[in-house]
Design a protein that fits this description.
The protein is 80% helix and 0% strand. The protein is mainly α. The protein has one domain: MetI-like (MetI-like fold, Orthogonal Bundle).
């Protein structure tokens, strides 16, 4: 009989950790014995099997998904463009610095409340997701550009490599780990900030509004069920996006062990 590989052992340990966490959750819910304070994981699982029947269930998921995904992509694109500009024109890095520091330092809740004065609640999650993603992408790409291989750049100039080929064969391969790292971090952050914006702004037809209503009516099973759905969609969308990004960047098909 073959011994399980290290990857299989890692997954077995993770599954065991999940079951252990669920066991503690079950015991805590039984000890508290209050459906308002905490429901059992079994109750949440049962609610997950029926919550899709709630009115506007699928439209709420779509509303939140495309708003947060839109904000993430806007932050990704603009962050890359600003990083290239700051690298090309050093004075711009100085001009961008106070804005990026402010965006990274101000609490998300403060941004949400401030932005409610300027924007409609329907567009709030787009803008908040965009703000969370922008400085991280910008800083990572700028760091990657600054650490570029000077010898490779000089060689490209000597042999008069075209800008397109230089971008494809020198710049993009060098920036790949910086971009993947930034996207891995910001994908989850965009969902957390975007849903938080929806909970505070409560736009109609959003998952944030569903969470707010569940909390208002003390429907803890609904609250936890919607939380599980949000986490699942966040993780799946992050994995799919990173997979597509790796393909576009020409990375091999091997998945990381983690």
């Amino acid at each position: 009989m073959e011994k399980p590989s290290s990857l299989q052992m890692l997954w077995l340990k993770k599954v065991g950790a999940i079951f252990l966490a669920l066991t503690f959750w079950q015991i805590a819910a039984m000890k508290i014995h209050s459906r308002i304070l905490l429901v059992t994981p079994i109750a949440v699982l049962k609610r997950l099997c029926t919550i899709w029947q709630v009115e506007n269930f699928f439209s709420s998921i779509w509303f939140t998904f495309y708003h947060i995904a839109g904000g993430f992509l806007l932050g990704l694109i603009l962050g890359i463009l600003l990083a290239f500009l700051a690298h090309k024109i050093p004075v711009l890095e100085i001009l961008f610095w106070p804005w990026m520091v402010t965006i990274k330092s101000v609490p998300v809740a403060s941004f949400i409340v401030i932005c409610l004065v300027w924007l409609s609640v329907n567009n709030l999650s787009i803008f908040i997701s965009f703000l969370i993603v922008l400085p991280v992408i910008y800083q990572n790409i700028l760091t990657g550009l600054k650490s570029g291989n000077r010898e490779m750049k000089e060689m490209a100039q000597i042999f008069r490599v075209s800008p397109f080929r230089k971008l494809k064969y020198i710049i993009i391969p060098h920036l790949r780990p910086y971009l993947l790292s930034a996207c891995t971090v910001t994908a989850g952050m965009a969902w957390k900030a975007g849903v938080a914006a929806e909970i505070i702004g409560t736009p109609s037809g959003s998952m944030g509004k569903m969470l707010f209503l569940a909390k208002t009516y003390l429907a803890t099973d609904d609250l936890l069920a919607w939380t599980v759905i949000i986490v699942a969609i966040s993780v799946i969308s992050e994995k799919v996006f990173l997979y597509v990004l790796k393909k576009l960047l020409g990375e091999s098909k091997r998945r990381d062990a983690a």
